[in-house]
Design goal:
Helices cover 32% and strands 21% of the residues. It is of the alpha/beta class.
Length: 333
C-alpha cells in the first residue's frame, strides 16, 4: 500500500507583516512543489536534498487541481477539529440529509490533481458493518463499508462503475464522507473550490463550496441537482495571505525563476517575497526553505505532517506523494 504525506500549515496568530507572512506560507508551498515533482526527474537532478531552486520551474508540472487539493483537505481538517467557523453549516447540511445525531466527523475519500484522482483512506476503521449511507433515494440505506472496495475500484477504473448499485452509481466522485459516529449515518460529499463545478451524481448528497460574495450563504437543497449546497466562509486574513503566497510562487515558476514582471506581482510585498527566491536560485530548495525560516513571522504557522495510506489500482501511477493544506486561525469570542 502506498502512502501520501499530508502537510498542514496551521495559523497560530494574526498577520503582522505582509512580507513575513508571505514568506511563512511560501516555504511550505515550495516544499509541496518539490515533493510533488516526479521522482525520476528529481533523481536526475541529484535527489530532493540537492535539487536547486532554479531547477524547480523546469521540472515541476503545475496542475489545475493544486489549489483545490488544499481546499479539500482544509475542509476535512476543519471538520475533524470541530472548527466553529463551519460546523454549524455542516450540522445543518447533515440534518437536511436526515443524518441526525450529535458527533460529526469526516473521512477523506479522494484527492484530484491534474485530472487524475488518488484515493486517500483516512480512518475508515471508524466505519462499522452497520454504517448506513443516506442517498436520498426511497429505499433502504446501503451499508457503506460493504461497498467501499467497489467504490475504490470505480474511483480508478471506469469499467467497474456499472457494477455499482444504481443509488450510489456516482458516489465514486465523493471527496469526503460526512458522518455521525453516534448514530452511524453517513453522506457522500463533494468539495469544489469553484461553485460552478458542482455537479449532481447518484449517491452524493452534500456539495461544499466557498461562500460567494453577493450570493446567499444559506445551506439549501438545490432541487435541480438534488444536492444540499453548503457554502462555507473563508478566514479573510489567512486565506488572502495564502493565495498571495500561492500567486508569488506561480509567477516565479511561470517566469522560469526570473523576477516576475511588475504587472504579474503589482503589490510591493509580493515582489519583495519573489526577490527572496530569485536571489537564491543556485541553492537547493530545502536549504532555501530552511534559511527563509529566519525571515518568517515565526508565530504565524505551525507545521504538522502525517502519512495517509493510498489505495491505488495496480496499474495506477501516483502523480504526487505530498499535499499541503492551510488551516486558518480559529475565531475567538
Amino acid at each position: 500500500m502506498s502512502t501520501i504525506t499530508v502537510r498542514t500549515e496551521n495559523q497560530r496568530a494574526p498577520v503582522e507583516s505582509e512580507v513575513l507572512a508571505l514568506i511563512s506560507v511560501i516555504r511550505p508551498i515550495l516544499l509541496g512543489l518539490l515533493y510533488s515533482t516526479k521522482r525520476e526527474l528529481v533523481e536526475e537532478a541529484g535527489g530532493y536534498n540537492q535539487m536547486k531552486l532554479k531547477m524547480l520551474p523546469g521540472l515541476h508540472n503545475p496542475g489545475d487541481g493544486d489549489v483545490g487539493i488544499c481546499f479539500e483537505w482544509a475542509i476535512h481538517d476543519a471538520i475533524k477539529r470541530n472548527d466553529p467557523m463551519i460546523m454549524d453549516r455542516i450540522e445543518t447540511s447533515l440534518r437536511q440529509c436526515r443524518a441526525n445525531g450529535q458527533e460529526i466527523t469526516s473521512i477523506l475519500f479522494g484527492l484530484e490533481k491534474s485530472g487524475i484522482r488518488q484515493l486517500i483512506d483516512t480512518e475508515t476503521s471508524i466505519l462499522t458493518d452497520e454504517s448506513r449511507l443516506l442517498t436520498g433515494a426511497q429505499a433502504q440505506p446501503v451499508k457503506l463499508k460493504r461497498h467501499l472496495s467497489s467504490l475504490t475500484g470505480a474511483f480508478r477504473n471506469s469499467r467497474t462503475r456499472p457494477a455499482l448499485p444504481y443509488s450510489i452509481s456516482g458516489l465514486w466522485k465523493a471527496d469526503l464522507f460526512l458522518g455521525r459516529t453516534d448514530t452511524d449515518r453517513w453522506v457522500g460529499s463533494t468539495v469544489k473550490i469553484n461553485p460552478h463545478d458542482l455537479e449532481a451524481a447518484k449517491g452524493l448528497r452534500v456539495g461544499i463550496v466557498p461562500m460567494s460574495q453577493g450570493r446567499s450563504d444559506r445551506v439549501a437543497l438545490d432541487r435541480i441537482k438534488n444536492i444540499v449546497v453548503c457554502p462555507v466562509p473563508y478566514d479573510a486574513s489567512f486565506m488572502e495571505v495564502f493565495y498571495m503566497g500561492w500567486r508569488v510562487v506561480q509567477q516565479f515558476v511561470a517566469a522560469r525563476g526570473r523576477m516576475p514582471r511588475e504587472v504579474a506581482l503589482p503589490n510591493p510585498p509580493e515582489r519583495q517575497a519573489a526577490r527572496e527566491l530569485v536571489d537564491r536560485l543556485d541553492f537547493p530548495v530545502v536549504d532555501v526553505v530552511d534559511v527563509l525560516q529566519a525571515q518568517c513571522q515565526r508565530n504565524l504557522l505551525e507545521s504538522g505532517q502525517q502519512q495517509a495510506p493510498m489505495h491505488l489500482n495496480v496499474q495506477a501511477t501516483p502523480t504526487t506523494d505530498t499535499i499541503i493544506s492551510p488551516v486558518p486561525l480559529e475565531r475567538r469570542s
